């Protein structure tokens, strides 16, 4: 995973070309940036909604094409930059540009824990980590190894996961009724449902699998008033229940 910090320069992100070396030695002296390091990996952007516009454009270009191009004084270098984009941010501090928001496959809303007992447990674990990080990490190493193996198994199983055409049609019907732009919402929902199915050790997607991922995949893609925050998921759930025949009737 590569971390893209707030305030990073374009050279730091894209990479630089040593013009003097290029001219004197006749070689393309390229110093890779964060996009090169993130290739085939994960690019994490903290406070992504506060990212400078010119860096947003760079991320959009790389996310769309899978390549990054650096040009200096007539010298051009192009390298692959295919990565999974993960971002975090407080929407109260500023909204994310719609074009970049659409590049995120899923959107999760994280709230502060309210349960006092769980809060205490979190504080205790943090204190334990601060006092002796290696000991804390070793304590959970077995769980980490098991989780890693679960993911590896799921990646292999994913090849065998199927989703019935009727379910795929209903996914697209939900996207159409919610007026979701483009087809990325359809694609991501299908992929997420299959991934969840594989993770849980199954090979056939169910309606419940789709229900559990659909809000995460669609709520940040809904058309909304510029002053309105990202939908909580109510609209997606309401349309999903109607399309999949899960609405309850009172009699």
**CATH-assigned fold name of the largest domain:** Rossmann fold
Low-confidence stretches: none
Major β-sheet strand ordering = 1-4-7
What form results from the Cα inertia axes? globular
What would CATH call the architecture of the largest domain?
3-Layer(aba) Sandwich
Helix content percent band = 40-55%
Q: CATH homologous superfamily of the largest domain?
A: P-loop containing nucleotide triphosphate hydrolases
Instruction: Give the N-terminus to C-terminus distance in angstroms.
Output: 54 Å
Question: Roughly how many Å is the radius of gyration?
Answer: 22 Å
In this structure, how is the largest beta sheet organized?
A: 3 strands, parallel
The total of beta strands comes to: 7
Order of helices and strands: EHEHEHEHEEEHHHHHHHH
Fraction in beta strands: 5-15%
Give the total of domains.
2
Query: How would you classify the helix and strand content by structural class?
Result: alpha/beta
CATH C-level label of the largest domain: Alpha Beta
What is the average per-residue confidence, as pLDDT, rounded to a whole number?
89
Oligomer: single chain
Number of helices: 12
Write structural notes for this entry:
With 251 residues, the protein is α/β, with parallel strands linked by helices. It folds into 2 domains: 2-101, P-loop containing nucleotide triphosphate hydrolases (Rossmann fold, 3-Layer(aba) Sandwich); 159-243, Orthogonal Bundle (Helicase, Ruva Protein, domain 3), CATH 1.10.8.80. Helices cover 49% and strands 13% of the residues. The chain has 12 helices and 7 strands. A 3-stranded parallel β-sheet has the order 1-4-7. The chain has a two-stranded antiparallel ribbon with strand order 2-3. A two-stranded antiparallel sheet has the order 5-6. Helix 6 (116-131) packs across helix 7, helix 10 (184-199) packs across helix 11 and helix 11 (207-218) runs antiparallel to helix 12. The chain is globular and about 70 Å long. The N and C termini lie far apart (54 Å). The mean pLDDT is 89.
């Amino acid at each position: 995973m590569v971390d893209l910090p707030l305030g990073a320069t374009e050279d730091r992100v894209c990479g630089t070309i040593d013009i003097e070396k290029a001219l004197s030695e006749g070689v393309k002296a390229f110093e890779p940036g964060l996009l090169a390091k993130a290739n085939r990996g994960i690019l994490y952007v903290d406070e992504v909604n506060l990212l400078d516009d010119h860096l947003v454009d760079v991320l959009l270009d790389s996310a769309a094409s899978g390549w990054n191009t650096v040009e200096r004084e007539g010298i051009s270098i192009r390298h692959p930059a295919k990565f999974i984009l993960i971002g975090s941010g407080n929407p109260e501090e500023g909204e994310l540009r719609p074009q970049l928001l659409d590049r995120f496959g899923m959107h999760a809303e994280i709230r502060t824990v309210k349960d006092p007992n769980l809060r205490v447990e979190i504080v205790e674990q943090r204190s334990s980590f601060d006092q002796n990080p290696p000991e804390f990490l070793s304590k959970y190493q077995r769980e980490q190894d098991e989780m890693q193996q679960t993911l590896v198994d799921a990646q292999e199983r994913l090849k065998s996961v199927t989703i019935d055409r009727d379910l795929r049609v209903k996914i697209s019907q939900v996207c159409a009724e919610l007026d979701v732009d483009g087809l990325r919402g359809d694609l991501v929902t299908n992929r997420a449902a299959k991934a969840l199915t594989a993770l849980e050790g199954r090979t056939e997607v169910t309606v419940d699998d789709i229900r559990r991922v659909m809000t995460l995949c669609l709520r940040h893609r809904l058309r909304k008033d510029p002053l309105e925050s990202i939908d909580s998921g109510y609209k997606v759930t309401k349309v999903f229940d109607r399309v999949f025949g899960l609405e309850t009737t009172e009699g």
